[in-house]
Amino acid sequence: FSNSSIPNPVYTPGTNDITSGFVTLTLTANGTNGQQASESAVRINITSLPTVNAGIDFAVNEGETIQLSEATAYNYSSLYWTTSGNGSFNDSQSLNPIYTPSQLDTINGYVDLTMTATSYAPCSEVVTDAVRITINPNPTVNAGPNLSVCQGEQVTLGEATASNYSSLQWYSSGDGTFTPNPFVLNATYTPGPNDITTGSVTLTLTANGTNGQQA
Asked: How far apart are CA 167 and CA 184, in angstroms?
């Protein structure tokens, strides 16, 4: 109490009051000439404010849906999710919805998902929390057009392209060799004896993404 000896004090609820959800306040008055005390009680119901936690930031690969399984919320009358992008929720009013990123989200490389919760009456507080999802683009590769060379010539793979990769490697269906090694994008291939005998060889370029994806 701001002053427990006056008729109209201010009462600040304590931790146990909030945990219990209510408190009973009793006013007692003593007469001026020793008369028996009179008292009256009032019960104060305490509505807890909502708390929300959208979860910790994390990353997904391009094409994956996002399960917001780590989100938590308490003491709310309603909640809903919004996105900084233009993807879609399977249920934006669910605590743990699934979000499908849009192409714009992928181009941006991330999306912020915000959970908003409204308190129970008589409170009118609205609380929010957001989680950032990094979207790792998938690697892309293009080994280039088919080529024809004369026997004894090397093949320069100068038109091969790749993007969004952490590592790449060339593979041969034959027995030739790559120079300086098969891990270089524009390597040079020297056909082997079996390649020459067969009359053709297939060279395959594979790239690994920054988060374990493969193209």
From this structure: 9
